[in-house]
Write a structure and sequence with these properties.
Oligomer: single chain
Bound molecules: adenosine-5'-triphosphate
CATH superfamily of the largest domain: P-loop containing nucleotide triphosphate hydrolases
Number of domains: 2
Largest sheet: 6 strands, mixed
Distance between the termini: 30 Å
Radius of gyration: 17 Å
Length: about 240
C-alpha cells in the first residue's frame, strides 16, 4: 500500500534523510522509533508532501506521490495528524472539522455531511463542544480534534506524529483505542510515538531510525526484535 524506497531529504545543506526504505500494508500499524532529532518527523512530513524529497520514491497503492503537493496527496487518501496539531485559531470545533471535508475528492455534499456526522458521533466530547473555539480546547481534546478532522476525509493511510505527547494517561488510553479501531477497520497507520511500550502493543512492524537511516526493522510480536529495539533506542 505504502512503499518508500531510498528516500533522501535535506533542510538546506543538512542531509536529514539518508536513504530510508520502508513499507506498510492495509490494516497494520507501522511505527518509527528513534531518539530525538533522528528524522522521524521529517519522514512523515516528506511522505505527506510538506518537505520535498531530494531523491527516492514514495508510492501509494502504486502511484508515485513523491514531491507532489500536500493537498493532492491528501485527496489521494493519505492523511496526516501533525505533532503540533494545527488547530486553526478563530474557528470553532465544527469549522475545524469542516476543513477536513476539503481533503477528499469525488464525494457528494450529502456524503460529506454523513462523514462529518459519523465523526461527531464517534467523538461525543467534540460534539458537545462543537461551537467552542478549537484553540480553547484542552490539549487532549485538541489532539482528538486533530485526529477527528483527518478522519472526516476518510483516508486509507494515516500518518500520526507523537499523538500522546504531554497528555494525561486516560487520554493516552483513548488515543491508543482510536488508533487500534482505525487499524482494525483496515487503515494503514504510520506512527511516531515516544511512548515505545504503549506503541509497540498496537504495532505489527517497526523501524528503528538513527541519523536519517533505518538501522533495523523488526516485528513487534518477536521478543528478540523488541529487545534489540530497546537496546538501540535505550528505553
Ligand atoms: N525546518 C527545519 N529546518 C532545518 N532543520 C530542521 C527542520 N526541521 C527539522 N530539522 C532538523 O532535522 C533533524 C531531524 O528532525 P526531525 O524533527 O525529523 O527529528 P525527529 O526524529 O522527529 O525528532 P523528535 O523526536 O525530537 O521530534 C534535526 O536535526 C532537526 O533539528
Amino acid at each position: 500500500m505504502l512503499e518508500i524506497t531510498d528516500l533522501h531529504a535535506h533542510y538546506g545543506l543538512s542531509h536529514v534523510l539518508q536513504g530510508v526504505t520502508l513499507t506498510g500494508a492495509a490494516g497494520e500499524v507501522v511505527s518509527l522509533f528513534g531518539r530525538n532529532g533522528v528524522g522521524k518527523t521529517t519522514i512523515i512530513k516528506t511522505i505527506a508532501g510538506w518537505v520535498r524529497p531530494t531523491s527516492g520514491s514514495i508510492r501509494l497503492d502504486g502511484a508515485d506521490i513523491g514531491g507532489r503537493p500536500a493537498d493532492r496527496i491528501c485527496r489521494m487518501g493519505l492523511g496526516i495528524v501533525p505533532e503540533d496539531r494545527r488547530i486553526f485559531p478563530g474557528l470553532s470545533v465544527l469549522e475545524n472539522l469542516e476543513l477536513g471535508l476539503h481533503q477528499t475528492a469525488g464525494r457528494s455534499r450529502s456524503e460529506k455531511r454523513e462523514a462529518l456526522d459519523r465523526v461527531l458521533e464517534r467523538f461525543p466530547r467534540l460534539k458537545e463542544r462543537r461551537a467552542q473555539m478549537g484553540t480553547t480546547l484542552s490539549g487532549g481534546e485538541q489532539q482528538m480534534l486533530a485526529m477527528a478532522r483527518v478522519m472526516v476525509g476518510a483516508p486509507r493511510v494515516l500518518l500520526i506524529d507523537e499523538p500522546t505527547e504531554g497528555l494525561a494517561p486516560m487520554i493516552v488510553d483513548e488515543i491508543f483505542g482510536i488508533i487500534t479501531t482505525l487499524r482494525d477497520q483496515g487503515l494503514l497507520i504510520l506512527l511516531v510515538e515516544q511512548n515505545v511500550h504503549r506503541a509497540i502493543a498496537v504495532t505489527s512492524r517497526f523501524y528503528a531510525i538513527e541519523r536519517g537511516q533505518v538501522v533495523f526493522t523488526g516485528s513487534a510480536a518477536n521478543a528478540d526484535d523488541r529487545e534489540r529495539l530497546f537496546g538501540t533506542i535505550a528505553v
